[in-house]
Amino acid sequence: MGQAPSTTFSSNHPSTSLPAAHTPVDAQGSGLVPPPGCPMHNPDQPSSRPPSPKLPPSSAGQCPIPHDQRSAYLSSSPSPPPTTTSSASLNPNNMMPALPQTAHDSQLAPLSTDRTTSSIPRGSDEGGNWEYPSPQQFYNALMRKGWETPEESVEMMVLIHNFLNEEAWAEVRKWEKRVTGDAQIELARFQGRPQDYSPKARIHMLLSSVFPSRFHNAPPFDRHDWLIRRPSTSEEVRYVIDYYSAPDDADGNPVFHLDVRPALDSPSAIKERVVVAAERAWRAVTGAEKGEGEV
Q: Which of 171, 149, 128, 176 is nearest to 69 (CA)?
């Protein structure tokens, strides 16, 4: 998403594989799955590769990214564990250390230091929108986590990273529109929590052991918690985002599933979750199509 790639979500979620809330996102031709425990948001926690999910092909919107570097990424191997960072050196708005724009000692090829501005408003005194990391910063974060990654793969990984965040933001806006209408919202803070499976993900994995033919058994490869600020009321609402990977579609395009929803932190959030679940159940029973802008 240099400029955020456009995508059209499918209204048909795989009912036998993932929770109904999952939004399928087809990153056309990227050939890359973001490392589990996104390195840009979790600099100090070691990661392991996610198991390959067993999911049916999903028709979904597409992200225009070339499909020629899957083997390069999958052949990358963990290097010795990185050093840890004290909490005092982390930015409290994103729980990340300052990432240098200088080349890593082991780097063999130059990487761009250009950063892309997202469509996500920053909920702080700084104003403006959040900026995505440059390929150089992303590479340094990968190396910090102990991931040896070919330099030629990094730009594609950054595109997918940005793409998934833009799609997550689009889903957050759909939820928020139900409550705030067209009022402005902002992303105040966020944190990656890949080792902390959400209650919903845990329940889903538990059900997969009982009903393996109905429930997908692979855990999400990443989790983010986003704190959304509503400037009109100064209210802050936490959202949980589970990121799942899926097999390529029929055309060989990688597919991702996003499960975006407000955390059950307040009566109003619980109400919205119940109402949306009822709406989805009604569509499933009646065969009605999901309208534009509906969650």
A: 149
Residue 251 has a CB neighbour count (10 Å cut-off) of 11
Phi, psi dihedral angles at 227 (to 5 degrees):
-100, 110
Helix, strand and coil content of the chain, in percent to the nearest 5, comes to 25, 20, 55
CA distance 218 to 95: 26
Phi, psi of 30, rounded to the nearest 5 degrees: -70, -40
Torsion 123-129-134-139 (CA) sign: positive
Q: Among 171, 162, 189, 193, which residue's Cα sits nearest to residue 260?
A: 171
Helix axes 267-286, 151-180, angle to 10 degrees: 100
Q: What is the pTM of this model?
A: 0.73
Q: Residue 36 corresponds to which tokens in the numbers above?
A: 């589990």
Residue 36: DSSP 8-state: S
Buried b (16+ CB within 10 A) or exposed e, 87-96: eeebeebebb
Dmax over CA atoms of the chain, in Å, equals 59
Q: Which helix (H) or strand (E) holds 271?
A: helix 267-286
48-106, pLDDT tens digit by residue?
333 333 332 222 333 333 334 333 333 343 333 444 444 446 556 555 567 889 999 88
Determine contact, residues 272/175, Cβ cutoff 8 Å: yes
**Is residue 156 predicted with pLDDT exceeding 80?**
yes
Residue at 232: amino acid letter: S
State residue 62 phi and psi, 5-degree precision.
-125, 145
Q: Residue 251 is which amino acid?
A: D
Q: How far apart are CA 223 and CA 258, in angstroms?
A: 10
The helix or strand, by DSSP H or E, that contains position 175, with its residue range, turns out to be helix 151-180
